[in-house]
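Contributing new records

If you add data, match the layout below exactly. Sequence lines come first and carry their own label; structure lines follow with theirs. Keep one chain per record. Anything else will be rejected by the validation script.
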Amino acid sequence: MTKIAIVTGGSRGLGRNAALSIARHGGDVILTYQSRGEDAQAAVAEINAMGRRALALQLDTGNIAGFAPFAERLRTALRDTWQRDTFDHLVNNAGHGDYALIEQTTEAQFDGLVNVHFKGVYFLTQALLPLIADGGRIVNLSSGLTRVSYPGYAAYAAVKGAVEVLTVYLAKELGSRGIAVNTVAPGAIETDFGGGAVRDNPEVNRIFAEMTALGRAGLPDDIGPMIASLLSEDNRWVNAQRIEVSGGQGI
Protein backbone atom coordinates (compact mmCIF):
# COMPACT_ATOMS: atom_id res chain seq x y z
CA MET A 1 0.00 0.00 0.00
CA THR A 2 1.29 3.47 -0.90
CA LYS A 3 2.28 5.52 2.13
CA ILE A 4 0.64 8.90 2.70
CA ALA A 5 2.60 11.71 4.39
CA ILE A 6 1.38 15.02 5.77
CA VAL A 7 3.96 17.80 5.56
CA THR A 8 3.00 21.01 7.34
CA GLY A 9 4.29 24.19 5.75
CA GLY A 10 4.80 22.34 2.49
CA SER A 11 4.33 25.26 0.11
CA ARG A 12 7.89 26.59 0.42
CA GLY A 13 11.41 25.98 1.69
CA LEU A 14 12.27 22.79 3.52
CA GLY A 15 8.65 21.66 3.66
CA ARG A 16 8.26 21.84 -0.10
CA ASN A 17 11.56 20.07 -0.62
CA ALA A 18 10.55 17.34 1.85
CA ALA A 19 7.18 16.88 0.11
CA LEU A 20 8.84 16.54 -3.30
CA SER A 21 11.47 14.17 -1.92
CA ILE A 22 8.80 11.95 -0.34
CA ALA A 23 7.02 11.79 -3.70
CA ARG A 24 10.27 10.86 -5.45
CA HIS A 25 10.59 7.99 -2.94
CA GLY A 26 7.15 6.72 -4.00
CA GLY A 27 4.90 8.32 -1.39
CA ASP A 28 1.74 10.39 -1.71
CA VAL A 29 1.60 13.74 0.06
CA ILE A 30 -0.87 16.05 1.75
CA LEU A 31 0.84 19.37 2.31
CA THR A 32 -0.47 22.25 4.36
CA TYR A 33 -0.04 25.95 3.82
CA GLN A 34 -0.99 29.04 5.79
CA SER A 35 -1.40 31.67 3.07
CA ARG A 36 0.60 30.66 -0.02
CA GLY A 37 -2.16 28.81 -1.81
CA GLU A 38 -0.70 29.28 -5.29
CA ASP A 39 2.69 28.00 -4.18
CA ALA A 40 1.03 25.01 -2.53
CA GLN A 41 -0.92 24.16 -5.68
CA ALA A 42 2.28 24.44 -7.72
CA ALA A 43 3.91 21.87 -5.42
CA VAL A 44 0.85 19.61 -5.78
CA ALA A 45 1.10 19.87 -9.57
CA GLU A 46 4.79 18.96 -9.47
CA ILE A 47 4.06 15.91 -7.34
CA ASN A 48 1.19 14.84 -9.57
CA ALA A 49 3.52 15.12 -12.56
CA MET A 50 5.70 12.46 -10.91
CA GLY A 51 2.74 10.08 -10.96
CA ARG A 52 2.05 10.47 -7.24
CA ARG A 53 -1.11 11.84 -5.65
CA ALA A 54 -1.06 15.06 -3.65
CA LEU A 55 -3.42 17.55 -2.04
CA ALA A 56 -2.97 20.93 -0.36
CA LEU A 57 -5.02 21.91 2.69
CA GLN A 58 -4.99 25.30 4.42
CA LEU A 59 -3.85 25.27 8.05
CA ASP A 60 -2.59 27.88 10.48
CA THR A 61 -0.38 25.88 12.84
CA GLY A 62 -0.46 28.73 15.36
CA ASN A 63 -4.26 28.53 15.70
CA ILE A 64 -4.98 25.58 17.96
CA ALA A 65 -8.75 26.12 17.68
CA GLY A 66 -8.50 25.24 14.00
CA PHE A 67 -7.02 21.78 14.53
CA ALA A 68 -10.26 19.86 15.12
CA PRO A 69 -11.90 21.27 11.94
CA PHE A 70 -8.69 20.52 10.05
CA ALA A 71 -8.78 16.90 11.24
CA GLU A 72 -12.32 16.58 9.87
CA ARG A 73 -11.30 18.06 6.51
CA LEU A 74 -8.41 15.63 6.49
CA ARG A 75 -10.73 12.68 7.17
CA THR A 76 -12.83 13.69 4.18
CA ALA A 77 -9.77 14.11 1.95
CA LEU A 78 -8.39 10.70 2.90
CA ARG A 79 -11.68 8.98 2.15
CA ASP A 80 -12.38 10.84 -1.08
CA THR A 81 -8.89 10.60 -2.58
CA TRP A 82 -7.38 7.44 -1.11
CA GLN A 83 -10.40 5.53 0.24
CA ARG A 84 -8.59 5.34 3.56
CA ASP A 85 -9.30 6.42 7.12
CA THR A 86 -5.66 6.92 8.10
CA PHE A 87 -2.36 8.35 6.89
CA ASP A 88 1.13 7.06 7.62
CA HIS A 89 3.62 9.88 8.22
CA LEU A 90 3.42 13.29 9.86
CA VAL A 91 6.21 15.81 9.26
CA ASN A 92 5.81 18.78 11.62
CA ASN A 93 7.76 21.31 9.57
CA ALA A 94 5.70 24.54 9.53
CA GLY A 95 7.37 27.48 11.22
CA HIS A 96 8.71 30.98 11.02
CA GLY A 97 11.78 32.86 12.14
CA ASP A 98 11.63 35.74 14.61
CA TYR A 99 14.97 36.73 16.04
CA ALA A 100 16.06 39.21 18.72
CA LEU A 101 18.55 39.45 21.54
CA ILE A 102 17.12 38.31 24.88
CA GLU A 103 16.98 41.86 26.24
CA GLN A 104 15.05 43.01 23.16
CA THR A 105 12.61 40.10 22.73
CA THR A 106 8.96 41.10 23.09
CA GLU A 107 6.27 38.96 24.64
CA ALA A 108 4.46 38.92 21.29
CA GLN A 109 7.54 37.53 19.53
CA PHE A 110 7.99 34.91 22.23
CA ASP A 111 4.34 33.86 22.20
CA GLY A 112 4.30 33.64 18.40
CA LEU A 113 7.26 31.27 18.42
CA VAL A 114 5.77 29.12 21.19
CA ASN A 115 2.37 28.94 19.51
CA VAL A 116 3.70 27.80 16.14
CA HIS A 117 6.82 25.84 16.96
CA PHE A 118 5.86 24.09 20.20
CA LYS A 119 2.22 24.44 21.23
CA GLY A 120 1.12 24.00 17.63
CA VAL A 121 3.26 20.87 17.15
CA TYR A 122 2.02 19.42 20.45
CA PHE A 123 -1.69 19.90 19.85
CA LEU A 124 -1.72 19.26 16.10
CA THR A 125 -0.04 15.92 16.73
CA GLN A 126 -2.59 15.23 19.47
CA ALA A 127 -5.48 16.07 17.11
CA LEU A 128 -4.12 13.81 14.36
CA LEU A 129 -3.13 10.80 16.47
CA PRO A 130 -6.44 8.98 15.80
CA LEU A 131 -5.73 9.29 12.06
CA ILE A 132 -2.12 8.08 12.09
CA ALA A 133 -1.85 4.42 11.12
CA ASP A 134 -0.21 2.04 13.57
CA GLY A 135 3.38 1.53 12.48
CA GLY A 136 3.55 5.08 11.15
CA ARG A 137 6.18 7.78 11.65
CA ILE A 138 6.36 11.29 13.03
CA VAL A 139 9.23 13.66 12.23
CA ASN A 140 9.52 16.93 14.12
CA LEU A 141 11.75 19.70 12.81
CA SER A 142 14.16 21.33 15.23
CA SER A 143 17.36 23.31 14.60
CA GLY A 144 21.11 23.05 14.91
CA LEU A 145 20.76 26.10 17.17
CA THR A 146 19.67 23.90 20.07
CA ARG A 147 23.27 22.67 20.18
CA VAL A 148 25.27 25.66 18.86
CA SER A 149 24.36 29.11 20.15
CA TYR A 150 24.23 32.28 18.05
CA PRO A 151 23.16 35.69 19.43
CA GLY A 152 19.55 36.59 18.72
CA TYR A 153 18.21 33.05 18.45
CA ALA A 154 17.49 32.32 22.13
CA ALA A 155 13.69 32.18 21.99
CA TYR A 156 13.63 30.30 18.70
CA ALA A 157 16.18 27.75 19.90
CA ALA A 158 14.39 27.33 23.24
CA VAL A 159 11.08 26.34 21.65
CA LYS A 160 12.92 23.98 19.31
CA GLY A 161 14.55 22.43 22.36
CA ALA A 162 11.08 21.84 23.77
CA VAL A 163 10.15 20.01 20.56
CA GLU A 164 13.17 17.75 20.98
CA VAL A 165 12.00 16.76 24.47
CA LEU A 166 8.45 16.26 23.18
CA THR A 167 9.81 13.91 20.52
CA VAL A 168 11.25 11.57 23.15
CA TYR A 169 7.98 11.47 25.09
CA LEU A 170 5.94 10.88 21.95
CA ALA A 171 8.21 7.97 21.04
CA LYS A 172 7.71 6.46 24.49
CA GLU A 173 3.93 6.90 24.58
CA LEU A 174 3.32 5.80 20.97
CA GLY A 175 5.69 2.84 21.01
CA SER A 176 2.85 0.42 21.74
CA ARG A 177 1.33 1.43 18.39
CA GLY A 178 4.61 0.90 16.56
CA ILE A 179 4.88 4.61 15.73
CA ALA A 180 8.48 5.88 15.57
CA VAL A 181 9.10 9.55 16.38
CA ASN A 182 12.31 11.43 15.60
CA THR A 183 13.66 14.96 15.43
CA VAL A 184 15.53 16.29 12.40
CA ALA A 185 17.66 19.33 13.25
CA PRO A 186 18.91 21.22 10.17
CA GLY A 187 21.79 23.64 10.33
CA ALA A 188 21.71 26.98 8.52
CA ILE A 189 19.88 26.53 5.20
CA GLU A 190 19.54 28.81 2.18
CA THR A 191 15.75 29.37 2.01
CA ASP A 192 13.39 32.32 2.50
CA PHE A 193 13.06 31.35 6.18
CA GLY A 194 13.69 34.23 8.55
CA GLY A 195 13.46 36.71 5.72
CA GLY A 196 15.99 34.77 3.65
CA ALA A 197 18.88 35.82 5.90
CA VAL A 198 21.14 32.84 5.16
CA ARG A 199 20.25 32.77 1.46
CA ASP A 200 20.29 36.50 0.68
CA ASN A 201 22.76 38.06 3.15
CA PRO A 202 26.33 37.24 2.03
CA GLU A 203 27.80 38.09 5.44
CA VAL A 204 25.39 35.81 7.34
CA ASN A 205 25.99 33.08 4.77
CA ARG A 206 29.74 33.45 5.17
CA ILE A 207 29.54 33.25 8.98
CA PHE A 208 27.59 30.01 8.92
CA ALA A 209 29.78 28.56 6.15
CA GLU A 210 32.85 29.20 8.30
CA MET A 211 31.12 27.47 11.24
CA THR A 212 30.51 24.34 9.14
CA ALA A 213 33.00 21.54 8.57
CA LEU A 214 31.94 21.09 4.94
CA GLY A 215 32.53 24.80 4.33
CA ARG A 216 29.15 26.05 3.14
CA ALA A 217 25.62 26.76 4.28
CA GLY A 218 23.07 24.04 3.64
CA LEU A 219 20.59 23.78 0.78
CA PRO A 220 17.01 22.45 0.84
CA ASP A 221 18.20 19.43 -1.17
CA ASP A 222 20.46 18.55 1.78
CA ILE A 223 17.43 18.12 4.06
CA GLY A 224 14.35 16.95 2.14
CA PRO A 225 15.87 13.68 0.88
CA MET A 226 17.11 12.89 4.39
CA ILE A 227 13.59 13.30 5.79
CA ALA A 228 12.21 11.07 3.04
CA SER A 229 14.82 8.41 3.79
CA LEU A 230 13.96 8.52 7.49
CA LEU A 231 10.38 7.60 6.59
CA SER A 232 11.47 4.55 4.60
CA GLU A 233 11.48 0.98 5.86
CA ASP A 234 15.28 1.07 5.77
CA ASN A 235 15.13 3.25 8.90
CA ARG A 236 12.32 1.48 10.75
CA TRP A 237 14.47 0.96 13.88
CA VAL A 238 15.46 4.62 14.27
CA ASN A 239 13.35 6.05 17.10
CA ALA A 240 13.44 8.82 19.72
CA GLN A 241 16.54 10.38 18.14
CA ARG A 242 17.71 13.91 17.45
CA ILE A 243 19.37 13.72 14.02
CA GLU A 244 21.34 16.82 13.10
CA VAL A 245 21.74 17.49 9.38
CA SER A 246 24.11 20.43 9.32
CA GLY A 247 27.25 19.49 7.44
CA GLY A 248 29.13 19.56 10.74
CA GLN A 249 28.07 23.00 11.96
CA GLY A 250 29.89 24.28 15.02
CA ILE A 251 32.12 21.28 15.64
